[in-house]
Protein backbone atom coordinates (compact mmCIF):
# COMPACT_ATOMS: atom_id res chain seq x y z
CA UNK A 1 0.00 0.00 0.00
CA UNK A 2 1.45 3.35 -1.03
CA UNK A 3 1.59 6.15 1.48
CA UNK A 4 0.71 9.68 0.41
CA UNK A 5 3.65 12.01 -0.05
CA UNK A 6 2.60 14.26 2.84
CA UNK A 7 2.54 11.36 5.30
CA UNK A 8 5.89 10.11 4.03
CA UNK A 9 7.43 13.56 4.50
CA UNK A 10 5.96 13.83 8.00
CA UNK A 11 7.50 10.48 8.89
CA UNK A 12 10.88 11.59 7.52
CA UNK A 13 10.60 14.82 9.53
CA UNK A 14 9.78 12.85 12.70
CA UNK A 15 12.88 10.69 12.04
CA UNK A 16 14.89 13.93 11.52
CA UNK A 17 15.83 12.96 7.97
CA UNK A 18 14.26 16.16 6.61
CA UNK A 19 13.27 19.54 8.03
CA UNK A 20 9.96 20.95 6.81
CA UNK A 21 9.80 24.72 6.56
CA UNK A 22 6.13 25.66 6.16
CA UNK A 23 5.46 27.55 2.93
CA UNK A 24 9.19 27.56 2.13
CA UNK A 25 10.17 23.98 1.37
CA UNK A 26 11.97 20.96 2.66
CA UNK A 27 15.61 20.73 3.66
CA UNK A 28 17.83 17.72 4.23
CA UNK A 29 19.72 18.41 7.48
CA UNK A 30 23.48 18.46 7.53
CA UNK A 31 25.22 15.40 8.92
CA UNK A 32 27.64 16.31 11.68
CA UNK A 33 30.01 14.46 13.96
CA UNK A 34 28.58 16.26 16.98
CA UNK A 35 25.06 15.03 16.18
CA UNK A 36 26.33 11.49 15.63
CA UNK A 37 28.13 11.45 18.98
CA UNK A 38 25.10 12.72 20.91
CA UNK A 39 22.85 10.30 19.02
CA UNK A 40 25.12 7.39 19.99
CA UNK A 41 24.92 8.42 23.66
CA UNK A 42 21.18 7.82 23.49
CA UNK A 43 21.36 4.79 21.21
CA UNK A 44 23.79 2.85 23.46
CA UNK A 45 21.47 2.10 26.42
CA UNK A 46 18.33 1.70 24.29
CA UNK A 47 19.94 -0.80 21.94
CA UNK A 48 21.52 -2.69 24.86
CA UNK A 49 18.12 -3.10 26.50
CA UNK A 50 16.61 -4.24 23.21
CA UNK A 51 19.22 -6.95 22.57
CA UNK A 52 18.94 -8.21 26.15
CA UNK A 53 15.19 -8.62 25.83
CA UNK A 54 15.52 -10.12 22.35
CA UNK A 55 17.99 -12.69 23.72
CA UNK A 56 15.49 -13.56 26.43
CA UNK A 57 12.32 -13.56 24.30
CA UNK A 58 13.26 -14.62 20.75
CA UNK A 59 11.39 -17.58 19.33
CA UNK A 60 13.23 -20.46 17.67
CA UNK A 61 12.12 -19.15 14.27
CA UNK A 62 13.49 -15.69 15.05
CA UNK A 63 16.77 -17.22 16.22
CA UNK A 64 17.14 -19.06 12.91
CA UNK A 65 16.49 -15.83 11.02
CA UNK A 66 19.08 -14.05 13.19
CA UNK A 67 21.74 -16.59 12.29
CA UNK A 68 20.85 -16.30 8.60
CA UNK A 69 21.06 -12.49 8.80
CA UNK A 70 24.45 -12.75 10.54
CA UNK A 71 25.79 -14.85 7.67
CA UNK A 72 24.19 -12.61 5.07
CA UNK A 73 25.61 -9.37 6.42
CA UNK A 74 29.09 -10.90 6.52
CA UNK A 75 28.77 -12.08 2.91
CA UNK A 76 27.73 -8.67 1.59
CA UNK A 77 30.56 -7.08 3.57
CA UNK A 78 33.05 -9.48 1.92
CA UNK A 79 31.64 -8.47 -1.48
CA UNK A 80 31.69 -4.72 -0.66
CA UNK A 81 27.97 -4.57 -1.46
CA UNK A 82 26.87 -1.47 0.47
CA UNK A 83 23.28 -1.61 -0.77
CA UNK A 84 22.87 -5.19 0.46
CA UNK A 85 24.65 -4.27 3.71
CA UNK A 86 22.16 -1.50 4.42
CA UNK A 87 19.25 -3.84 3.62
CA UNK A 88 20.61 -6.48 5.99
CA UNK A 89 21.18 -3.82 8.63
CA UNK A 90 17.57 -2.66 8.41
CA UNK A 91 16.34 -6.27 8.59
CA UNK A 92 18.58 -6.96 11.61
CA UNK A 93 17.22 -3.97 13.51
CA UNK A 94 13.61 -4.89 12.69
CA UNK A 95 14.13 -8.48 13.82
CA UNK A 96 15.76 -7.43 17.10
CA UNK A 97 12.82 -5.15 17.90
CA UNK A 98 10.36 -7.87 16.90
CA UNK A 99 12.12 -10.42 19.12
CA UNK A 100 12.24 -8.00 22.08
CA UNK A 101 8.43 -7.82 21.85
CA UNK A 102 8.18 -4.22 22.95
CA UNK A 103 6.71 -1.81 20.40
CA UNK A 104 8.33 1.18 22.06
CA UNK A 105 11.75 0.07 20.88
CA UNK A 106 10.78 0.62 17.25
CA UNK A 107 9.64 4.15 18.09
CA UNK A 108 12.84 4.89 19.98
CA UNK A 109 15.34 3.07 17.79
CA UNK A 110 14.12 3.67 14.25
CA UNK A 111 15.11 7.35 13.99
CA UNK A 112 18.39 6.78 15.84
CA UNK A 113 19.42 3.91 13.61
CA UNK A 114 18.36 5.70 10.44
CA UNK A 115 20.44 8.76 11.27
CA UNK A 116 23.34 6.59 12.38
CA UNK A 117 23.24 4.58 9.12
CA UNK A 118 23.19 7.84 7.18
CA UNK A 119 26.30 9.05 9.00
CA UNK A 120 28.11 5.73 8.43
CA UNK A 121 27.24 5.64 4.74
CA UNK A 122 28.43 9.21 4.18
CA UNK A 123 31.66 8.54 6.11
CA UNK A 124 32.39 4.88 5.37
CA UNK A 125 35.76 5.74 3.83
CA UNK A 126 36.98 6.25 7.41
CA UNK A 127 36.41 2.58 8.22
CA UNK A 128 39.57 0.59 8.64
CA UNK A 129 37.42 -2.51 8.96
CA UNK A 130 33.71 -3.02 8.52
CA UNK A 131 30.98 -3.13 11.16
CA UNK A 132 29.34 -6.24 9.64
CA UNK A 133 31.23 -8.55 12.01
CA UNK A 134 29.96 -6.52 14.99
CA UNK A 135 26.36 -6.82 13.80
CA UNK A 136 26.86 -10.54 13.19
CA UNK A 137 28.20 -10.94 16.75
CA UNK A 138 25.07 -9.30 18.13
CA UNK A 139 22.82 -11.60 16.13
CA UNK A 140 24.73 -14.73 17.14
CA UNK A 141 24.71 -13.90 20.86
CA UNK A 142 21.03 -12.96 20.80
CA UNK A 143 20.22 -16.18 18.92
CA UNK A 144 22.15 -18.10 21.59
CA UNK A 145 20.00 -16.48 24.28
CA UNK A 146 23.09 -14.96 25.91
CA UNK A 147 21.86 -11.66 27.38
CA UNK A 148 25.19 -10.57 28.87
CA UNK A 149 27.24 -11.17 25.75
CA UNK A 150 24.49 -9.64 23.59
CA UNK A 151 24.77 -6.45 25.67
CA UNK A 152 28.57 -6.54 25.35
CA UNK A 153 28.31 -7.06 21.57
CA UNK A 154 25.90 -4.13 21.31
CA UNK A 155 28.26 -1.99 23.38
CA UNK A 156 31.17 -2.99 21.13
CA UNK A 157 29.21 -1.84 18.07
CA UNK A 158 28.34 1.54 19.62
CA UNK A 159 31.95 1.99 20.75
CA UNK A 160 33.11 1.27 17.20
CA UNK A 161 30.63 3.79 15.75
CA UNK A 162 31.67 6.38 18.36
CA UNK A 163 35.34 5.92 17.46
CA UNK A 164 34.53 6.20 13.77
CA UNK A 165 32.83 9.54 14.40
CA UNK A 166 35.73 10.77 16.55
CA UNK A 167 38.20 9.73 13.84
CA UNK A 168 36.41 12.05 11.44
CA UNK A 169 37.45 15.05 13.54
CA UNK A 170 40.78 13.64 14.67
CA UNK A 171 39.88 12.93 18.32
Structure, described:
- Residues 38-160 form the GntR C-terminal domain.
- It contains 7 helices and 2 strands.
- It is globular.
- With 171 residues, the chain is mainly alpha-helical.
- The longest helix is centred in the N-terminal third of the chain and has 25 residues, at 33-57.
- Helix content is 74%, strand content 4%.
- A two-stranded antiparallel ribbon has the order 1-2.
- The model has no long low-confidence stretch (mean pLDDT 86).
- The chain has a single domain, classed as GntR ligand-binding domain-like (Four Helix Bundle (Hemerythrin (Met), subunit A)).
- It has helices at residues 5-14, 33-57, 60-78, 82-100, 103-122, 132-143, 147-168; strands at residues 19-21, 25-27.
What keywords describe this structure?
Four Helix Bundle (Hemerythrin (Met), subunit A); DNA-binding; GntR_C; globular; 171 residues; 7 helices; mainly alpha; 4% strand; transcription regulation; two-stranded antiparallel ribbon; TF_FadR/GntR_C
Helix content: over 70%
SS-derived structural category: mainly alpha
CATH topology assignment:
Four Helix Bundle (Hemerythrin (Met), subunit A)
Q: What's the quaternary structure here?
A: single chain
Distance between the termini: 46 Å
| Percent in strands | under 5%
Lateral strand order in the biggest sheet:
1-2
Mean residue pLDDT: 86
| Low-pLDDT residue spans | none
Task: Report the total helices.
Answer: 7
**CATH architecture identity:** Up-down Bundle
Instruction: Say how many strands there are.
Output: 2
Q: List SSEs in N-to-C order.
A: HEEHHHHHH
Radius of gyration, Cα only, in angstroms? 16 Å
Shape descriptor reads globular
Count of separate structural domains:
1
What kind of sheet is the major sheet? 2 strands, antiparallel
Q: Any idea what the CATH superfamily is called?
A: GntR ligand-binding domain-like
Q: Please give the CATH class.
A: Mainly Alpha
Amino acid sequence: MAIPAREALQKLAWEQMVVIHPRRGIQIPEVSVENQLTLLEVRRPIEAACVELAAQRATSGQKKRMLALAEGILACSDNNDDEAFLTYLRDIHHLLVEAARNEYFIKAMSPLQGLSRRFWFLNKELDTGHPANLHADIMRTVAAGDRDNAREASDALISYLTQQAKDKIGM
